[in-house]
Amino acid sequence: MGQMTDAKNAGPDERLSYEQARAELATVVERLETGGTSLEESLALWERGEKLAEVCQRWLDGARARIDAARRQPDA
Q1: Whether the predicted model's global pTM rises above the 0.70 cut
Q2: Which stretch of DSSP H or E encloses residue 51?
Q3: Which residue segments constitute the domains of the chain, with CATH numbers given?
C-alpha cells in the first residue's frame, strides 16, 4: 500500500486526512441510522462509508507502522 502522504497520484479519498474521513464517516453512519432514505441512497451511503472506513484504516495502519519502526530504533 502507498503512503497516504503521497497525494500527487492519489484519488480524492486518499487525499483526505484521517480526521476528515472519520468526520464524514460519522455523518454517513448518522444518516443511515436515522433512516428516511431510499434504498438506492442507503446503498450509496453504505458504499461511501466502506470507502471512508478503508481510508481511516490505512491511516491507522500507517501510524502503527511508524510507531513500530520508532520502537525498533536503538536509543540515541
Answers
A1: yes
A2: helix 39-72
A3: 12-72 (1.10.287)
- Residue 10 is predicted with a pLDDT of 61
Q: In this structure, are residues 36 and 28 in contact, taking their beta carbons and an 8 Å threshold?
A: no
Residue 9's contacts (CB-CB under 8 Å, 6 or more residues apart) are 2
For residue 28, how many other CB atoms are within 10 A of its CB? 20
Please give the pLDDT value at position 5. Answer: 46
What is the average pLDDT across 52-62? 97
Query: What is the b/e burial string over 29-67, where b = at least 16 CB atoms within 10 angstroms of the residue's CB?
Result: eebeeeeeeeeeeeeebeebbebbeebbebbeebeeeee
Q: What is the mean pLDDT of residues 36-43?
A: 97
